[in-house]
């Protein structure tokens, strides 16, 4: 009698698609109507991986072009003494340029701002343009831990640990030990001149403007979800020079599987000024 009940409980717990423990445990009962139910794991993807890939390639290629163009323009200006020495790097890292690239390529901009929900801290908003349904709106940055890898220290009081459907964890906290781990793994994986991940999501001005998905707040009965999480494994054909914009890195160098990223996809059209809300609880039957 006891065993089947226990097993049922264990199965329900394991079937939670995404868990931000312990916030989920404390808040699930208040927001039961917001549970997202999916009948099969493979049906959970709102858009095909190829569409996610095309959006990322479009944005990252524009970012790399605008970065190069900034450098060229500034170098020229520098020679004609229009730009004082030392400002070149500053301009090339200009967030306005990156947001322009995003607006041109994807048709919208997103950014962090204080949430519209009381006591929910920071949230993510569409600040310009228009997001059509089915668009890749944001990325969830962080260190990727396989299900069997230890994360105990990093997970203590950490509301940014995201659990994928297969038990892979992504630690998106930009402070403390989580920050140190990300920076160290990112430095380790550098391939000659190529950076294999982007550490700038740890700052207020990420080079990849999509990499703020860890700040998206949970929906409520009054504020339904307008985005959802979707796993995305980086394919072999991903251009090596564009890895520098990926905000994820494997905790272990020996991981023998494609790099796991998590993207947020829009569930409907979203207008400028709207806050993004995801669903922290999804049950896969
Ligand atoms: C992944 S973080 C999201 C970013 C967070 N808003 C911040 O400023 O750090 C998850 C935490 O955000 C807060 N949060 C998310 N959704 C919320 C909601 N609907 N109402 C209140 N707090 C929320 C909770 O504190 C939760 O532990």
TrEMBL record:
Q: Where is the SET domain?
A: 106-281
The UniProt entry, under InterPro entries, shows:
SET_dom, SET_dom_sf, SETD9
SUPFAM superfamilies per the record?
SET domain (SSF82199)
Q: What is this protein called?
A: SET domain-containing protein
Q: What is the lineage of its organism?
A: Eukaryota, Metazoa, Chordata, Craniata, Vertebrata
